[in-house]
C-alpha cells in the first residue's frame, strides 16, 4: 500500500488564513477590481510575511485585488482574506472602482460635432 501524500499547497493556504475561508468581519466587500493601497503609516514588522509583501507592493499606489493576488502568487480567496485583515488593521485602504460608464447618446455627440464645426 502506497502512503497517501498530503497536498502542501492546500495546507499552507489554510495556515496562512488562520483556518478562515472568509474575512473576520464583513465590513469590506473586496471584488477582483477593488483597488487597494498601503497607508504607509503603520509598522509592518508584526505582520505575516505574505501581508508584509502586500503592503510593500501597494506602497507605490493603487492595485486591484486581482493584481495583488498575481504578484504575491496566492489564490484570490486567500488574498482577499489577508487584504481585509490589513484594511481592518489600518495598513491598507480600499477604493471601489469607478462605476461603469453609460454609452453616450449618438444624437448628442453629433450635435457637439456640429457645434465644433460651426465654431471652426
Chart the SSEs and their pairings.
Blueprint: H1 8-16, E1 35-38, H2 49-57, E2 63-64, H3 65-72, H4 76-89, E3 92-95, H5 106-119
Antiparallel strand pairs: 1-2, 1-3
Low-confidence stretches: none
Binned, the helix content reads 40-55%
Beta percentage is 5-15%
What's the mean pLDDT score?
A: 84
Helix count equals: 5
Shape from CA axes? elongated
Order of helices and strands: HEHEHHEH
Specify Rg, calculated over alpha carbons: 22 Å
Task: Report on this structure.
The chain has helices spanning 8-16, 49-57, 65-72, 76-89, 106-119; strands spanning 35-38, 63-64, 92-95. The protein is elongated, with a radius of gyration of 22 Å. Helix 3 (65-72) packs across helix 4. It is built from five helices and three strands. The chain is mainly alpha-helical and 120 residues long.
Explain briefly what this protein structure is.
With 120 residues, the chain is mainly α.
Record keyword descriptors for this entry.
single chain, 120 residues, mainly alpha, three-stranded antiparallel sheet, 3 strands
Amino acid at each position: 500500500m502506497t502512503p497517501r501524500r498530503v497536498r502542501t499547497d492546500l495546507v499552507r493556504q489554510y495556515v496562512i488564513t488562520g483556518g478562515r475561508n472568509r474575512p473576520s468581519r464583513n465590513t469590506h466587500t473586496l471584488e477582483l477590481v477593488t483597488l487597494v493601497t498601503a497607508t504607509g503609516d503603520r509598522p509592518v514588522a508584526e505582520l505575516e510575511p505574505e501581508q508584509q509583501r502586500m503592503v510593500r507592493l501597494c506602497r507605490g499606489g493603487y492595485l486591484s485585488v486581482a493584481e495583488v493576488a498575481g504578484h504575491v502568487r496566492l489564490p484570490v480567496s486567500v488574498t482577499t482574506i489577508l487584504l481585509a485583515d490589513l484594511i481592518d488593521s489600518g495598513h491598507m485602504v480600499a477604493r471601489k472602482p469607478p462605476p461603469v460608464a453609460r454609452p453616450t447618446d449618438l444624437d448628442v455627440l453629433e450635435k457637439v460635432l456640429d457645434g465644433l464645426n460651426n465654431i471652426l
